[in-house]
């Protein structure tokens, strides 16, 4: 038997949980980021989404507005600090004060460490770690100026348990985890909290392109106590919780959403 599906967040949390907040979700046009962006809107927050391509951002922005809150969609390459600063200016001009940052933009491909080119390393670590740092430092300064806020970064289970063919991704995600702990320590006195959500293997178009169905089946059989892959909906409740006043005393924490992937396999 598999672990059951996570219920929709509207069955778990108050509809006005995040009323009056504005969330900025990078990579908010696809996969986990899209699910999170819509959930923030469901719970009353205005939502800004940003990534390189407007093609998938626009329909999500429309779906956010359909929920009766304000939306902003803007392009950014998180690897570029100037671009990130321009993104924040656009968001502040269009939806005002940002109180929640979700560092969700990510990149990955599977590659044996000895075959990874310098550019291949840079493209993944640049997106995951430099991207998260660029957004955290830029938006973090705004959060400090406004007197507080919440940062949630999407880590990955490969940050605490290395995985084959994940040299670049695992190292980048380990850096993300550590960066969240550091800013949590530095910025608590400014009312800013920072936490990491670490998905295991979540069925999104992005990850299925990377791993394919055959590897996915192998991971389910050998690695997942849950006996199923995760879904973007599985990542929503813990991220909303960390963004909300319910997590007022939670900072520098690491929450795996992995169906037991980090548990040791059954020794039989
Ligand atoms: C064995 C299974 C173990 C299972 C363990 C499970 C652990 C789960 C943890 C999962 C962690 C994280 C998962 C995710 O992040 S899923 C989200 C994935 N989504 C995406 O990746 C979407 C975005 N993707 C991209 O933008 C691109 O795919 C890319 C990452 C490649 C970046 O594109 P960009 O345009 O910047 O880069 P280029 O195409 O120009 O390539 C740059 C260099 O990278 C080299 N490259 C690209 N793909 C590969 C490949 N498949 N193998 C080897 N090298 C690759 C490319 O050749 C360029 O380098 P060179 O110039 O030197 O050729
Ligand atoms: N799915 C999974 O199994 C797991 C996912 N994660 C993490 O969760 C997050 C979301 O994953 P998932 O939904 O699967 O990924 P997707 O592939 O669906 O989404 C990645 C998003 O990041 C955006 N993005 C990529 N590069 C950049 C860039 N340079 N600048 C701005 N935006 C960028 C993409 O948009 P665009 O192309 O428009 O730029 C896209 O919307 C990622 O951080 C990922 O590493 C962690 C562990 C497992």
Description:
Interacts with PEX5, probably required to target it into peroxisomes. It is found in: Peroxisome. One of its GO terms (molecular function) is trans-2-enoyl-CoA reductase (NADPH) activity. It comes from Natrarchaeobaculum aegyptiacum. Its EC number is 1.3.1.38. The chain is of the alpha/beta class. The protein has one domain: NAD(P)-binding Rossmann-like Domain (Rossmann fold). Helices cover 44% and strands 14% of the residues. It has seven helices and seven strands, in the order βαβαβαβαβαβααβ. α3 packs parallel to α4 and α4 runs parallel beside α5. The longest helix is centred in the middle third of the chain and has 29 residues. The radius of gyration is 18 Å and the shape is globular. Bound molecules: ligand L4XM7KOE and NADPH dihydro-nicotinamide-adenine-dinucleotide phosphate. The site of ligand L4XM7KOE has 25 residues, from α4 and α6.
Poorly predicted spans: none
Described by strand count, sense and barrel closure, the largest sheet is: 7 strands, parallel
Structural class: alpha/beta
Strand content: 5-15%
Provide the fold topology.
Blueprint (H helix, E strand, L loop, with lengths): L21 E5 L4 H12 L3 E6 L2 H13 L4 E5 L5 H15 L4 E4 L14 H29 L2 E6 L12 H21 L4 E8 L5 H19 L12 H8 L10 E4 L11
Parallel strand pairs: 1-2, 1-4, 2-3, 4-5, 5-6, 6-7
Helix pairs in contact: 1-2, 3-4, 4-5
The structure holds ligand L4XM7KOE and NADPH dihydro-nicotinamide-adenine-dinucleotide phosphate (NDP).
In short:
This protein is of the alpha/beta class and 268 residues long. It has 7 helices and 7 strands; from the N terminus they run βαβαβαβαβαβααβ. The chain has a 7-stranded parallel beta sheet, with helices on both faces.
């Amino acid at each position: 038997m598999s672990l059951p599906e996570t219920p929709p967040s509207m069955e778990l949390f108050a509809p006005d949980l995040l009323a009056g907040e504005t969330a900025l979700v990078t990579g908010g046009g696809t996969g986990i980021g899209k699910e999170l962006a819509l959930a923030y809107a469901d719970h009353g927050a205005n939502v800004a989404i940003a990534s390189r391509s407007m093609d998938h951002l626009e329909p999500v922005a429309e779906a956010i507005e359909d929920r009766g809150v304000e939306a902003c969609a803007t392009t950014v390459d998180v690897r570029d600090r100037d671009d990130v600063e321009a993104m924040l200016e656009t968001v502040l001009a269009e939806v005002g004060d940002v109180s929640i940052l979700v560092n969700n933009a990510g990149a990955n491909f599977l590659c044996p460490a000895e075959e990874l080119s310098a550019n291949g390393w840079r493209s993944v670590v640049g997106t995951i770690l430099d991207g998260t740092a660029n957004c955290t430092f830029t938006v973090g300064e705004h959060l400090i100026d406004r007197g507080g806020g919440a940062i949630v970064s999407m880590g990955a289970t490969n940050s605490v348990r290395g995985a084959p063919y994940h040299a670049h991704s695992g190292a980048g995600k380990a850096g993300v985890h550590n960066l969240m702990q550091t800013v949590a320590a530095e910025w608590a006195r400014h009312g800013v909290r920072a936490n990491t959500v670490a998905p295991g293997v979540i069925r999104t178009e992005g990850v299925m392109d990377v791993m394919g169905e055959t590897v996915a089946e192998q991971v389910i059989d050998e690695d997942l106590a849950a006996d199923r892959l995760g879904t973007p909906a599985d990542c929503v409740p813990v991220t909303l919780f960390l963004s909300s006043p319910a997590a007022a005393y939670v900072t520098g924490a690491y929450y795996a959403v992995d169906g037991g992937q980090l548990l040791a396999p059954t020794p039989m």
